[in-house]
Specification:
- By secondary structure, this protein is an alpha/beta fold.
- It has 18 helices and eight strands.
- A six-stranded mixed sheet has the order 3-2-1-4-5-6.
- β1 and β2 form a beta hairpin.
- α5 crosses α12.
- The longest helix has about 35 residues, at about 235-270.
- It is globular.
- About 30% of the residues are buried.
Length: about 425
């Protein structure tokens, strides 16, 4: 049994965009040194060397505390071999009261608070470790896809708003104004006046090129030729110019969404073992890399596809690697915040939504539960039973997300793929 050496010194780094404040304290809590560094490459290198000098020990024996678990400061310290720990800013705010109950705050004091609280309350911190290259790539492309989808939704809403100004009947043709055929139609028929000038053959060519069969050409023209709304002079010209610019941007975003989805699928294909065993055995390639088998297991769960599974693995890579169910459900906002105090020491607790979580992971869990309810009969019945017991939609939805997450952690522990036949017979009957 090897002895674990205690840290020789504790450091706190209060990072900023221009300056980083650092403080080093000894195991007794006495301040050894404090200094401010520039936030550029030279400043980060100087800070790392200064921490080793003032700590009087190699980087591995100097524990560093910081608020954010990511960024260039964290990556620099990890690459130099420091033991980096992160903490939630709200928790740090409570530790700050030890040094100033009046609420005074400055960067130098925050660096000391970080260092001293790591020394006394290490359990409140989470150790940060570098992700694998595959996880970093997954995380980046997953976030790119999420940002593109948000931008796509915003552009579609803006086009819809412009059409409501002067051409609302065009919205009767589709619920997605970003469809390629609809954008081409708006280019050919930009105004109600142009709709009366276009021939059926023009509309037919657009529909045939984009393989649209739910509308016939004469039906499209009939919709576009409905009585137009009365608008002020210049409104049509302004709105059509705005739509033209939005259309160009939307086409670029849609093409990038397709590219990001193909890339995510390609990364998942590289990480999934070629022949995974459904009962926990190791197929070819499994066991060489942690993410190989994890991706295969996550993809076998109902509701998780090649978009949500990479997002789940990327945003919660460390707790999933540690199989920490409580950490994942807290990070995802699935675990509620309960209040039991004063007169509420008995009876129903006050339960509120957990806002202090990873918003990307919370959205991923919401979409996962929603897809499982829509496409899997068991989870659809589970949701109906919860609603019948008087639970609200949000409570029933969160319960499904929590159960799915618990099943996922159990599967990751046993190295087994999802097996719907293992459900309890009484649950299946429900």
């Amino acid at each position: 049994m090897t002895d674990v050496l205690e840290p020789a010194a504790y450091a706190g780094v209060d990072w900023a965009t221009e300056k980083n404040d650092a403080c080093v304290v000894d195991p007794e809590g006495l301040v050894i040194a404090e200094k401010q560094f520039d936030a550029d490459a030279d400043g980060l290198a100087a800070m790392a060397a200064w921490l080793v000098e003032k700590g009087g020990a190699p980087p591995g024996r100097i524990d560093v505390a910081i608020e954010v678990p990511h960024g260039v400061v964290v990556e620099t310290l990890l690459e130099r071999g420091f033991a980096v720990h992160s903490i939630n800013p709200r928790q740090l705010d409570r530790f700050r009261d030890r040094f100033s109950v009046a609420g005074a705050k400055d960067d130098r004091r925050d660096a000391r608070v970080l260092a001293d609280s790591l020394r006394t309350d290490r359990r409140a911190f989470r150790r940060i470790q570098n992700d694998t290259p595959e996880t970093i790539e997954l995380k980046e492309w997953s976030r790119i896809h999420s940002e593109l989808k948000a931008e796509d939704n915003a552009l579609c809403n803006r086009i819809r708003q412009q059409l409501l100004r002067y051409f609302p009947q065009a919205l009767d043709l589709t619920g997605d104004v970003g469809e390629a055929w609809f954008l081409k139609l708006l280019e050919s028929v930009p105004t109600p006046t142009e709709a009366h000038r276009r021939r059926v053959a023009t509309i037919e060519a657009i529909l045939q090129y984009h393989r649209i069969r739910r509308w016939k050409p004469d039906e499209v023209l009939a919709v576009l030729r409905k009585p137009a709304v009365t608008v002020a002079p210049g409104t049509v010209e302004a709105a059509t110019a705005h739509i033209r610019l939005l259309t160009e941007r939307l086409r670029v975003v849609r093409s990038q969404i397709v590219e990001s989805e193909k890339t995510l699928a390609s990364i998942c294909d590289r990480l999934v073992p070629s022949s995974p065993s459904p009962h926990g055995g190791q197929g070819e390639g499994e066991g060489r890399n942690h993410e190989l088998s994890d991706v295969a297991i996550l993809l076998s769960l109902p509701g998780l596809g090649r978009i949500l599974a990479p997002a789940l693995l990327a945003e919660a890579s460390r707790p999933l690697h540690e199989r920490d169910y409580q950490a994942v459900r807290t990070l995802a906002g699935v675990a509620p915040v309960t209040r039991r105090s004063g007169k509420r020491t008995s009876g129903p607790w006050v339960v509120s939504m957990r806002y202090a979580c990873n918003p990307r992971l919370r959205v991923t869990m919401h979409n996962w539960a929603q897809c499982a309810m829509q496409w899997d009969p068991y989870w659809k019945a589970h949701y109906a039973a919860a609603r019948a017991r008087g639970q609200s939609h949000g409570r029933a939805h969160r319960g499904i997300a929590d159960r799915l997450l618990r099943i996922a952690i159990a599967m990751l522990k046993t190295r087994a793929l999802y097996d719907p036949e293992r459900r309890h017979p009484t649950r299946g009957a429900a």
